[in-house]
Design a protein that fits this description.
Elements: H1 8-52, E1 66-67, E2 74-80, E3 83-96, E4 99-108, E5 113-120, H2 134-138, H3 166-188
Antiparallel strand pairs: 1-2, 2-3, 3-4, 4-5
Length: about 190
C-alpha cells in the first residue's frame, strides 16, 4: 500500500478528525457526569444543612429553600409545624485568599449562629484551609451577631483569626455577615 503524501491538506484533515472525536468524547463525558455531580453537590449541601441546624424541625429545609432575590444566597427554613425555628443559609465571600469561598451557616431567629460548614474553598492547605477546623468554628457557635462584633480581633472584633490566615478568616466572617444581612432584609420585607 502506498503511503499518503504529507501534505498540508492531509495534516489539516487529521487534526479536524482528531478534534471532532475529542469534542464528541468530551460532550459525552459531560452528559454522563453532569447528573451524578449535581447529586453529589446537593448531598453535600444537605449534609451541611443538617449539621448546622438544631434538630428541632420536622420539615425538609432543603426542599423548602428560597433563593433570595438579588443575590446568590439560598435560605433553608427549619420549621416545627408551621413555625420557623431556625434557618440555614448558603452564602459566599469573594474576599478569600484564593477566590470564592462558599459555606452553609445556621442561625437561630435571634441572630445566634448555630454552626457553619464550608462547602467550597480554594484556600492554601494547612493555612487558610484551617477555617474548616473545629478550633476556628468553635468560637462562632453560640455567637450572637446582634450582641457581639463579627470581626477578627485585628479589626477590633471578637473572633480570633486562624494564625497566618487572617484573610481566610475574614472571608468566613464576611460570608456569615452577608447571609445574616440578607436574612434580615428578607425578613423585614415581610416574606
Amino acid at each position: 500500500m502506498k503511503k499518503p503524501a504529507n501534505t498540508l491538506r492531509n495534516m489539516i484533515l487529521a487534526m479536524v478528525i482528531t478534534a471532532g472525536f475529542s469534542a464528541i468524547i468530551l460532550s459525552l463525558s459531560h452528559i454522563i457526569t453532569e447528573e451524578p455531580i449535581k447529586k453529589a453537590q446537593d448531598a453535600k449541601k444537605l449534609e451541611a444543612i443538617q449539621a448546622v441546624l438544631p434538630p428541632d424541625y420536622d420539615n425538609n429545609p432543603y426542599q423548602d429553600r428560597i433563593t433570595l432575590s438579588g443575590s446568590n444566597i439560598e435560605l433553608y427554613p427549619a420549621r416545627q409545624g408551621s413555625k420557623i425555628t431556625s434557618v440555614a443559609m448558603k452564602t459566599y465571600s469573594d474576599n478569600a485568599f484564593s477566590g470564592r469561598l462558599e459555606l452553609i451557616v445556621g442561625f437561630l431567629l435571634n441572630g445566634t449562629i448555630t454552626d457553619y460548614k464550608v462547602i467550597s474553598h480554594k484556600e492554601t492547605p494547612g493555612l487558610g484551609s484551617k477555617i474548616t477546623e473545629e478550633k476556628f468554628a468553635r468560637q462562632l457557635r453560640g455567637f450572637n451577631i446582634e450582641k457581639q462584633n463579627l470581626k477578627v480581633r485585628q479589626d477590633n472584633g471578637d473572633i480570633d483569626a486562624v494564625t497566618s490566615a487572617t484573610i481566610s478568616s475574614r472571608a468566613v466572617l464576611d460570608a456569615i455577615r452577608r447571609a445574616y444581612d440578607s436574612y434580615n432584609k428578607f425578613n423585614t420585607l415581610g416574606n
